[in-house]
Design brief:
- This protein has 29 helices and 17 strands.
- By secondary structure, the protein is α/β, with parallel strands linked by helices.
- The structure holds adenosine-5'-diphosphate and zinc ion.
- Adenosine-5'-diphosphate (ADP) binds next to helix 3.
Amino acid sequence: MTIDEDIAPQALGILNRVFGHAAFRGPQAVIVAHVATGGDALVLMPTGGGKSLCYQIPALLRDGTGVVVSPLIALMQDQVEALRELGVRAAFLNSSLGAREAARVEQALLAGELDQLYVAPGRLLSPRCLELLERSSIALFAIDEAHCVSQWGHDFRPEYLQLAVLHERWPRVPRIALTATADALTRREIAERLALQSAREFVSSFDRPNIRYRIVEKTDPKRQLLDFAGGAHAGQAGIVYCASRKKVEEVAQWLSARGIAALPYHAGLDTATRSAHQARFLREDGLVMVATIAFGMGIDKPDVRFVAHLDMPRSVEGYYQETGRAGRDGEPAEAWMAYGLADVVQQRRLIEQSGADDAFKRVSTAKLDAMLALAESVECRRVHLLAYFGESSAPCGNCDNCLEPPELWDATEDGRKLLSCIYRIRQSSGFGFGAQHVVAVLRGHASERVRQHGHDALSTFGIGADLSETEWRAVLRQSIAQGLVAVDHARHQVLVLTEASRALLRGERTLRMRRPRAETARSAGRGARRTAGTATAGAAGGRASARAAGSASADASTPGDGVAADALFERLREWRRATATQRGVPPYVIFHDSVLRAIAQQRPASLAALAAVGGVGERKLDAYGATLIDLIGSDAP
Ligand code: ADP
Ligand code: ZN
């Protein structure tokens, strides 16, 4: 196909016919036109933003094969299958192919029979492959996950450094580098190392409006998780992140025993088990993956409905990347995290005991502090997150703080009580004590240990009886987060005062924080001094609004219609599951949830009406149209 001024309508035609989408999203149209007409591009878009189309459509518009470099070998097969389902001639070359299969792909490439070819970077750089490409016609090079070129990033791949060779050998072939990593430093590294200095940069907003952010205090984490994953999200696919392998195993078993299909994933499992679990997660509907952060990079499953953190990530970058795996299909999704005092203490200890140099510790501490600030924020979580990535925005109305504004609390006086209590305890005993003990003394709880050390006679005994244990833990967490109190990890997690403590004791600074949210009815019943009424109302409110988030897409219909549409949606899912199994592809390769939902709501009665549904392209209409119309017709509304 030749390139002319009519590139925009041609691109739109492909978007409609092949991909079944009505319109380009955000900057896609401009990027597609730029690359299709031979320009180089550096594209920064959040996960789920729609990066793939930015090279897939130019590859179809230009002569020759689009060569896509990706480090995510495990995903290539699914990506290729999804393209083939659309009628695009796609293939991949990586170490998972046998010699015979690889030879067949090479033949197809040389014969000009491929629209797109996915290649692993190491493979691409081999002399054999470069020579093969020399003899082929290449439409463009797409370099996916381009941040892998950054030596400072966590996904560094040495082979990526050599990809500049593409520019030297094919100076006239356009290159497009893509990443979801936002920061300016990485962007500069990509441009330099890939010789893309003169490429046009396209930086999108990093907002993920369909993700609802929710951060709660940890009271009874597994139970809280069960309420979350088994309530509004029952039957949905999700990822639960835990910090350790042991906890991953434990939580996966715990969920499974309570009727939630969950699988573990961590680096301690053998490769076969890991890939089996990953394959099941991708292919089955509604599985929960309980994982360490070893899981997830490039997990391309569009219908992950929630990401839960049972342990706090070490940085906002990590949090954003992990939560970003939810809702790539644009449908409502939820990012939920439970965090508590132990997270703060543990993360600080990891940094202190890391054995790294001071500069590294400083950076790590700053990153952790930013994460804590997000967790304790009383403002819109999204505004806070986007500001961290340098974007300004307005309150979103789709996060916990917007939906249920937290109560503010001037904890200056309470903070002083805490510090004096830590001071008095040390003064009287000659050594320090841990959090539990200090809180007991503050609340006037004369436990055996408190009496044994004579701490019930201290002037600070019972000065904090007006606050619950949860509230004291919040004050303590906040004080540690702000450096007013330190934890001595060398000596049994004992609490100690710091330089900064003085400023608070002297009244030179204040301590403002969010009041801990109402706990779940269960943990309130266990004894935190809080009226059961408040706690129950809070928990029920939280659950009700979570449910609203889960079904927000069943919007404008009347309740009766909604029920019928839900029933049809379930039948369509059945059909999709059977079809996917038969074809050996993941269900979302057949149709995304959003497409099935639109069909269930619109109940198209003809092929023409079905073709008008977003996400139904020509090829899928041919393959499944008649079956779907029958299925809809036989479904009594
Ligand atoms: P990324 O690679 O940036 O994470 P993808 O390319 O996988 O994102 O796209 C994310 C989802 O958005 C996919 O399900 C894709 O089908 C959908 N999508 C992308 N562009 C459009 C569009 N213009 N209209 C509708 N859906 C789109
Ligand atoms: Zn908000």
